[in-house]
Amino acid sequence: MKLSVLLCTRNPRTDYLRRVLAALRAQDLPQEQWELLLLDNASQNRLSELWDLSWHPQARHLHEAQLGKTAVMLSGIRQAQGNILIIVDDDNILDQSYLTNALEKMASHPHVGVWSGTNQPEFEVLPAPWKHAFMPYLAINFETADRISTDLESAPLPIGAGMVFRREVALEYWRWMTAITPKRTVALHRCGTGLFAGEEDTEVGIVAIKSGFACGRTPDLRLTHLMPPHRLATCYLFRLVRDISYSHSLIFHQHGLQRGHFTARELISQMARGVGLITLGLVGGNADRLGRGLVGIFTLCGLGLARRSRQF
User: Fold this and answer.
1) Whole-model pTM above 0.90?
2) Which CATH number is 156's domain given?
3) Using CB atoms within 10 A of its CB, is residue 57 exposed (0-12), middle (13-18) or buried (19+)?
4) Is the pLDDT of residue 195 over 50?
């Protein structure tokens, strides 16, 4: 088996999941070369009773009772048979050649352990201009050329949506998470309504580099990320930036990285910069400055919380 697609979902929107599955069915990679695992994270209604996967000869329904994206991924890793794994969320529409391109990138770059690519949005409601600065936190990303690095402090760590990684990396990640999870705070486990994140993408990248591989991002992997209106709500975006900053800071700290670390003086300087951008944005009607200033302030809020609660 060359490749396993891990489709992770919990109480999915029917119209979204239908499009996700249709895009997988339309992949140009022959189905005998890949398997599909539909990972149901304790949905209110069992997906195995609602969704027919008989169109794929190597598709399976799997159920994971423990809530959280990390728990679902670990369950999928344990049961996947492919040498290459791809994480697909229930709002990711893969381009027709995504699976083929993933195999080609892995074959042509044997030193790269994990790839992610360009994730373009499809909005039901267009975001206000000042919210554009928040888009990277919604797993929206545009790549123009391959970027590859083995530097833990600066490597382009992967984006979870559409992430492609080798089985060796997956197993190392599984071992790491199995050992470290009992020692961690709840802040590092995204489940329910919590927005804390990092294990299922950032940490896969860190584990890959520590295992001797590189991390890469490429324009050759393209997907459409469906965006429902609630994900553009102002309060949601503010919490998202704060909580991701918080959890990433804790993860970097546990791995002994300086990445994202600020001294007290630097925090004050960055706070002043953020307030300045917000002021200039409001006074001058500059949406970009306003958005960047708000992102900066809520990033610092997350870092400040992390400095106060570093406990594992």
Assistant:
1) yes
2) 3.90.550.10
3) exposed
4) no
